[in-house]
Structures are given as C-alpha cells and as structure tokens.
Amino acid sequence: MIGDGRNDIEMFQWAKAHGGYAFAMGQAPDEVKLAATAVIAAVSEDGVAQVLASLEGLEFLS
C-alpha cells in the first residue's frame, strides 16, 4: 500500500497486520510516516515510480 494522508493510517495498519507493506510518501504528515513500514520519496521526486521499479522482476504468488 502507498499513501500520504491521515486517512491511509488504518489501511497501513491492515496491510501490516496481514503481512503486507505500507509505504508513506515523503510529503506525508509525521503520523502517517510513523504508521508506515517505510517512507519513500515524495510525489515530486517520483516516489511511487521508484517503488514500482524496485518490484521489477519479482514473482508474486497468487
């Protein structure tokens, strides 16, 4: 999950509780960053694109 707003905190908690990852954007408020697994670059720095590029080549189980 990737988010940057306070409304994403509950989603982050759910993702982490179910073995997923929660990425907060660099411009997110501090409480959102604290709820995340990791903080990535801001939107203006292509943070989402960087995360997606890092997943290239991974195989996901369905």
Polypeptide structure, described:
It contains three helices and three strands; from the N terminus they run E-H-E-H-E-H. With 62 residues, the protein is α/β, with parallel strands linked by helices. The protein has one domain. It starts with a strand and ends in an 8-residue tail after the last helix. The chain has a three-stranded parallel sheet with strand order 1-2-3. It has helices spanning 9-17, 30-35, 47-54, and strands at 2-3, 23-24, 38-39. The longest helix is centred in the first third of the chain and has 9 residues, at 9-17. GO terms for molecular function: magnesium ion binding; phosphatase activity. It holds the Pfam family Hydrolase_3.
Percent range of helical residues: 25-40%
Uncertain residue segments: none
Q: How much is the radius of gyration in Å?
A: 12 Å
Domain count: the total is 1
How far apart lie the N and C ends?
A: 17 Å
3D shape: flat
User: What oligomeric state do these chains adopt?
Assistant: single chain
Q: Which strand-content bin applies to the residues?
A: 5-15%
Main sheet specs: 3 strands, parallel
Keywords:
62 residues, alpha/beta, three-stranded parallel beta sheet, 3 helices, flat, HAD_sf, magnesium ion binding, HAD-like_sf, phosphatase activity
